[in-house]
């Protein structure tokens, strides 16, 4: 039974994207069952559309729908369907078209983090690594290089905590970051760079497409206190050397959170509490121009972390 994003996932069949997760159980169970086809789930036709993510050409990437009795449906034409109960404790999935890897991608990127929020955790749109001082989260827009930076830091000795989605929880007055799925989506060019740089064995590739490969990356086995949040910002006219700026304002903190379609009073209260605790951590922007490479970024981040 793998534990990812603070959830103990009990599945009726093995899921390659979740194995071998090494985190210990948390007591928050999620029962997962895969059906043969989306039609077998029986989703109501009158459900409310609460999120509609489109591709540049206008076609559906994925959508999230809500129904008071049935819970939430996350689906996409290329990804299949996941239906999550309102309490986040059950998930019914249907691959559709035999694309198991694509369904697992959406499961890890959206469905499991969504279930974590329903079960009382908060989630950041961030990759994260483990250092001697605690967890360091790396947030930024898609394509900013946060995954590449995390993997470069791991090549230098940091532990891998999560890729792109980080589940956090208030524990004894501080935020604790939970290990995510033991995998990362790596740009093909970055995969070649890491292989050429050496220091780690070539990872097992779980899936691949024209843009990236999904590779096995083992996570650290235990949750860690979240100590630092860096926002990676690349600007066309940004500096040639990474520059660190304080970024503890409310807008910046909220921009790092994941999936704001859940707006119940309990969720909003947890979200504000998480932002308040984040403000007590080191929260900084890393501003740089497009030519700044991942090695230069990692050098700057290592030096910055060591200053505290």
Write up this protein:
By secondary structure, the protein is α+β, with helices and mostly antiparallel strands. It has two domains: 3-119, no CATH class; 124-306, P-loop containing nucleotide triphosphate hydrolases (Rossmann fold, 3-Layer(aba) Sandwich). Helix content is 24%, strand content 36%. Helix 2 (146-155) packs across helix 6 (294-306). The relative contact order is 0.14.
In short:
With 308 residues, the protein is an alpha+beta fold.
Oligomer classification: single chain
* Rg, Å, rounded: 19 Å
Helix content: 10-25%
- The global form is globular
What is the number of E strands? Answer: 20
Query: What fraction of residues sit in β-strands?
Result: 35-45%
CATH topology of the largest domain: Rossmann fold
Structural class: alpha+beta
Q: Which features characterize this protein?
A:
8-stranded mixed sheet; alpha+beta; 308 residues; globular; 24% helix; 36% strand
